Automatic annotation (TrEMBL):
SUPFAM superfamilies membership: 6-phosphogluconate dehydrogenase C-terminal domain-like, NAD(P)-binding Rossmann-fold domains
Entry protein name: Putative 3-hydroxybutyryl-CoA dehydrogenase
Gene name as annotated: mmgB
GO MF term set: 3-hydroxybutyryl-CoA dehydrogenase activity; NAD+ binding
Residue ranges that the Swiss-Prot or TrEMBL entry lists as coiled coil: none
Keywords: Oxidoreductase
Ranges for domain 3-hydroxyacyl-CoA dehydrogenase C-terminal: 222-320
One GO BP: fatty acid metabolic process
Phylogenetic lineage: Bacteria, Pseudomonadati, Planctomycetota, Planctomycetia, Pirellulales
EC number(s) from the headed UniProt entry: 1.1.1.157
Length: 342
């Protein structure tokens, strides 16, 4: 693939809560997707989750051919359903060394050819720099030199990771916001080594899947929204750590004043408390001297250590019904004020 070519097939490394949503969004808008995770359990869970999604109400990507005139008797190619556009694998190496799919009955032949190419590899592994570096090294060894490599990192900047990508001209960050299936925005930014054609190819693809691309002028931790949001979330955790108010009261205040449906703790549940924990552990947020960052991390870990990761598990700072309604608040254990962690 030329770096200026259209992205038709994306490999997503990491089938967790975000990776599977990106896969669904891409497939529903006409891309071929291979979703990879080394854990068979995660792959199985992702596939079962994908099967619960309703079919798109219409062909969102305009995939296929234009409707023929009444006098046109040429048979139309049969488009695969969006689920047929997704392949699962537990081995990244196998994705690059074996055919991804055999043409299935009803699949368009040209579509299957697109499925055998790999235009983009997007890493969606946990927000830990050691894991991301290791993953990018592996991707670089396997992907062709004209395959675009991107990171979905929430806070790391491209220059922190580009050294672990061979041919860094093809590397950029492509960051999606959850829930990805809702029309939203995606952050796109490269580093000094990034070929502008890579940014343009990512921009075009993002537009094609119905998301608004935000092209940053320069790299910055957290891009735009996450950098704004982290101040709110950090402040909410500090208010709880200082025993000023409990999470429910803080969320009530936020919702009443802003008119937004979610408060800071509800937002953290939606993002995933495991993600919040990773960000805090990476020390991406600075804390005032009055509250030690370890206290904020401990507030989150009270939940993650019990498997309460937010809406993805049905339990986080709040419990949620199957319909997604809040049913209970989990009040955090009071923490010492001297910066220690209970």
């Amino acid at each position: 693939m030329s770096l200026t070519a259209k992205i038709d097939h994306a490999v997503i490394v990491g089938a967790g809560w975000v990776g599977r949503q990106i896969a669904a969004r891409m497939a529903q808008h006409g891309l071929w997707v291979t979703l990879v995770d080394k854990s068979q359990e995660v792959c199985d869970d992702a596939w079962q989750w994908l099967k619960t999604l309703p079919a798109p109400s219409e062909n969102a990507a305009g995939v296929g051919v234009a409707a023929p005139s009444v006098t046109d008797s040429t048979p139309l190619p049969v488009e695969p359903s969006w689920m047929e556009r997704i392949a699962m694998s537990c081995s990244l190496a196998e994705v690059f060394t074996t055919p991804l799919r055999e043409a299935a009955e009803g699949d368009a032949a040209d579509g299957m050819e697109l499925a055998r190419k790999i235009d983009l590899v997007l890493e969606c592994v946990p927000e830990q720099v050691s894991i991301k570096k290791r993953t990018l090294r592996q991707i670089s060894k396997l992907a062709g030199t004209d395959t675009i490599i991107a990171s979905n990192s929430s806070y790391f900047v491209p220059s922190m990771l580009s050294a672990y990508v061979t041919e860094p001209r093809r590397f950029a960050h492509l960051h999606f916001h959850v829930p990805v299936l809702r029309d939203s925005v995606a952050d796109i930014v490269g580093c000094d080594a990034t070929d502008p054609a890579v940014v343009e190819a990512l921009r075009e693809m993002v537009v094609r899947i119905g998301i608004e691309p935000l092209l940053l002028r320069r790299e910055h931790p957290g891009y735009i929204f996450n950098w704004l949001l982290q101040s709110v979330l950090k402040s909410a955790l500090e208010l709880t750590a200082l025993d000023v108010a409990d999470p429910d009261t803080i969320d009530q205040s936020w919702k009443a004043v802003t008119g937004m449906p979610l408060g800071p703790f509800g937002m953290m549940d939606r993002i995933g408390l495991d993600v919040i924990e990773q960000v805090l552990s990476n020390a991406r947020w600075a804390s005032p001297t009055e509250v030690d960052s370890a206290q904020l991390l401990a507030l989150v870990q009270q939940h993650t250590e019990q498997g309460r990761l937010g809406t993805k598990t049905g339990r986080g700072f709040y419990d949620y019904s199957e319909a997604g309604q809040i049913t209970k608040l989990h009040r955090p254990t009071k923490l010492p004020q001297d910066g220690g962690v209970s």
